[in-house]
From TrEMBL:
InterPro entries: AB_hydrolase_fold, BD-FAE-like_dom, GDXG_lipolytic_enzyme. Pfam families: BD-FAE. GO terms for molecular function: hydrolase activity. It comes from Massilia timonae CCUG 45783. This is BD-FAE-like domain-containing protein. SUPFAM superfamilies: alpha/beta-Hydrolases. Gene3D superfamilies: alpha/beta hydrolase (3.40.50.1820). Keywords: Hydrolase. Residues 80-248 form the BD-FAE-like domain. It comes from the Bacteria.
Amino acid sequence: MFHALQLGYSGGCPVIVILPMRLSSLLPALLFGALLNAHAAPTHPSPMKLDEYLALTGPAPTARLAYGPAPSQYAELFVPQGAGPFPVAVLVHGGCWTSKFGGIRQFRNMAGALAARGIAVWNVEYRRVDEEGGGYPGMYLDMHAALDLLAANAAAHKLDLERIVAVGHSAGGQLVQWIAGRARIPAGSPLYHPDGLKVDRIVSLGGLADLRHEAALIKSSCDRDIAQLAGTPSPERPDVLVDTNAADLMPNGSRTWLVTGALDTISPPRVAHDYAARAKAAGDAAEVVILPDASHYDEVAATSPAWPHVLRVIEQALGIQ
């Protein structure tokens, strides 16, 4: 024996299934279970951990260009397919200012994703505090030199430097936020560098930028002392933060997006809100973007559920609709 069951209508016609009588009595329970599964709360990947971040990788760069003789003084260029000219994202990795926690290789993950969207990438390596010449003033001088080299190679690779954003993560967030204010560095500073490439659109991903106000957090999160990042006081330079602290170099006409995972414990959302408040009080534009269910490492992974939010901010900074 068979049983005809009408499920509804499609295009004005009834939808009917024919079932053996022995199965028709089970259909309501089966349909109810399917409805429960369809409306069940979706599962989310767990927040990314350090070991998962260290495993990130991406495509090989178009070119690798050295801006100095040291092993870490180079940048990787990723050029998209097409005729150009291409907008440019300058990427500066984090890692607590040391070589211990990876960096440029992991950032190829983001670089590849951006290049696939038609954005050229300048992925910068630099001397960190545990490398010869790193720390103060070396890593800041590396930022100057890397941007000078980018400017020198822009025409050859069809790069549009009128559309440029600097994107930094964690310690790299400190460096890109510093880049925005480098024109305000006093002329007597070893870091003074007039007429450098202007970069006034900044995306700081879990950045630890405010050396003056976040010294305790930088120590607890990264075990870094401010002297490693800013040098030691001297009669010629009594305040070591006037040329190293991004918050001391405002206003500078920049617009900064402070993007932080809601679950970030290295640079919690409070840090982003505090820096944005200081930037606005100084007269600069700043916006906080909190990534739901994201850790410090989800902020930089193109495989993370947070990536569409990060990409949207980067494209907004470049004026890409």
